Amino acid sequence: MINLVITRGLKRLGYGRFLGAGRLRRRKGLPASTTVSGPLADDHDWSYPDGTPGTLNRAQSIRYLRDQEFGRTIVKYSKQFEAIAAMREKKAHEAESNGDKKH
């Protein structure tokens, strides 16, 4: 029983150290994990001698495609927001001009 308690305590201690490293990275303005984003995860792994970047690895390609899709979604919704704002402005202008005609 005591061995089990000690083992669980040691696991928590190790887990706390792992979380502490993430907090330290966040305090320095870095992502909590090195595999999430940043130059080490997003940039090319290698380049040709003339400076041309090499191909992206699988994870980088997936992240690139995901970010492109996210960008398209943002553009789509921003166009919808602009259209809604224009409709509201037009309705407000029409209501204002109809109110002036009644007086």
Please name the defining characteristics of this protein:
2 domains; mainly alpha; 0% strand
Shape: elongated
Which structural category fits the helices and strands?
Answer: mainly alpha
Biggest sheet statistics: none
What share of residues are in beta strands? under 5%
The termini sit apart by 88 Å
Helix content: over 70%
Average of the residue pLDDT scores: 78
Low-pLDDT runs: none
Q: Give the number of DSSP strands.
A: 0
SSE order: HHH
DSSP summary: helix tally? 3
Query: What's the gyration radius in Å?
Result: 27 Å
- Number of domains as seen in the coordinates: 2
Give an overview in words.
This protein is an all-alpha fold and 103 residues long. The chain folds into two domains: 1-33; 35-103. The chain is built from three helices and no strands. The termini are far apart. The mean pLDDT is 78.
How do you describe this structure in short?
The chain is mainly alpha-helical and 103 residues long. It has helices at residues 2-27, 39-42, 58-102. It has two domains: 1-33; 35-103.
Secondary structure elements and pairings:
Elements: H1 2-27, H2 39-42, H3 58-102
